[in-house]
Specification:
Blueprint lengths: L2 H16 L58 E5 L5 H10 L4 E6 L2 H14 L4 E5 L12 E7 L8 H11 E15 L4 H5 L1 H5 L8 H10 L3 E11 L3 H7 L2 H8 L4 E10 L3
Parallel strand pairs: 1-2, 1-4, 2-3, 4-5
Antiparallel strand pairs: 5-7, 6-7
Helix pairs in contact: 1-3, 4-7
C-alpha cells in the first residue's frame, strides 16, 4: 500500500474516533470503530492521576506516557506529534506553566477541532493545535525544546523522514521522548498487510533494532529506552491471521510486539 493511501486510512479511522460521543469507547487497537469486532485495547495507559489530565481529551489511544520521561521544564516549548484530542498536550501544559508553550500537530482535522474545543474550555492561551504531516512539519527549524509523541510514529510510513523532521525542528541541545509500538523478530506478512491492524498500531510497527537504528542515523545521541513492555494480543486476533507455526513463534517469545518509550538528544 502506498504512503498516500496509508495516510488516508489513518485520517479516516482517527477522524471517526474523534467524532464519537464522549461516552462511546475509543480505541487504538480494536473494537468495531476501527478494526476487527474484538476488544483488545491493550496499549493505553492510565493518566487519571497526572496533573493537567482532562478526560475529554483522553481517547485511550496511547501506548505510554512520554511526559513522564521527557524532562520537560517550566518555560519550554513542547511539540506533540499526533496530538489527537490534546491529552499529552494538556499534561505537558501543566509542567511548562504560563511561560512556556505547547504545540500539537495532527494530520486528522476532526482531532484538531476536538483538541481546540478542549483547549478553549480550559482557557489556555499557550496551547495551539496545527493540522499537518509529521513527514513535512509546517514549522521552522530549531523551534522546539522538547518533542513528544504517543503511539503515532508507527503510523507514519516514512519513519526516517519523521525522525529527520524531529531533528530539524528541535533546538540545539533539545531532545525528544516518544512512546511507540515496535516488533521483535519477523512479524508475519498477514499481520503487516492488514490495513485495519495498521491503524490499530501493529502492522505499521518496525523491528526494534531497526527503529533505534533509524534514530541513530538521523544524528541523535544518548538514545535510551526508558520503558518497555510486551503486548499480548488475544487468541481471537492471532488465530485469524497466523498459521500454527507462526502462532508457535509468538507463544515462545521469538516474535512479539512491544510498547517502548525512548528518548534521545540533539547535539548542542
Amino acid at each position: 500500500m502506498k504512503s498516500k493511501e496509508l495516510k488516508q486510512i489513518v485520517k479516516e479511522k482517527y477522524g471517526r474516533i474523534a467524532e464519537q460521543n464522549s461516552e462511546e469507547k475509543s480505541c487504538c487497537c480494536g473494537t468495531s470503530c476501527c478494526g476487527p469486532e474484538v476488544d483488545y485495547t491493550v496499549f493505553s495507559e492510565d493518566y487519571k492521576n497526572k496533573e493537567g489530565y482532562n478526560p475529554d481529551a483522553d481517547m485511550n489511544l496511547g501506548c505510554g506516557i512520554p511526559t513522564d520521561y521527557a524532562h520537560i521544564k517550566k518555560g519550554d516549548h513542547v511539540l506533540d506529534l499526533g496530538s489527537g484530542a490534546g491529552n499529552d498536550c494538556f499534561v505537558a501544559r501543566a509542567i511548562i506553566g504560563d511561560t512556556g508553550k505547547v504545540t500539537g500537530l495532527d494530520i486528522t482535522e476532526p482531532m484538531i477541532r476536538k483538541a481546540r474545543e478542549n483547549s478553549k474550555k480550559l482557557g489556555f492561551r499557550n496551547v495551539e493545535f496545527v493540522n499537518g504531516d509529521i513527514e513535512e512539519m509546517p514549522f521552522d527549524e530549531k523551534t522546539f525544546d522538547v518533542v513528544i509523541s504517543n503511539c503515532v510514529l508507527n503510523l507514519v510510513p516514512d519513519k526516517a523522514k519523521a525522525f529527520s523532521e524531529i531533528y530539524r525542528v528541535l533546538k540545539p541541545g533539545g531532545h525528544f521522548c516518544v512512546s511507540d509500538v515496535v516488533i521483535k523478530g519477523l512479524l508475519p506478512e498477514k499481520l503487516r498487510e492488514d490495513a485495519e491492524l495498521y491503524v490499530g498500531c501493529v502492522s505499521g510497527a518496525t523491528e526494534l533494532d531497526e527503529y533505534i537504528g533509524t534514530i541513530k542515523q538521523n544524528g541523535f545521541r544518548n538514545i535510551l529506552i526508558q520503558k518497555q513492555k510486551e503486548i499480548f494480543l488475544p487468541d481471537e486476533l492471532l488465530t485469524k491471521h497466523l498459521s500454527c507455526d507462526e502462532l508457535e513463534l509468538f507463544s515462545n517469545g521469538k516474535v512479539g510486539i512491544l510498547s517502548i518509550t525512548v528518548s534521545a538528544d540533539k547535539q548542542s
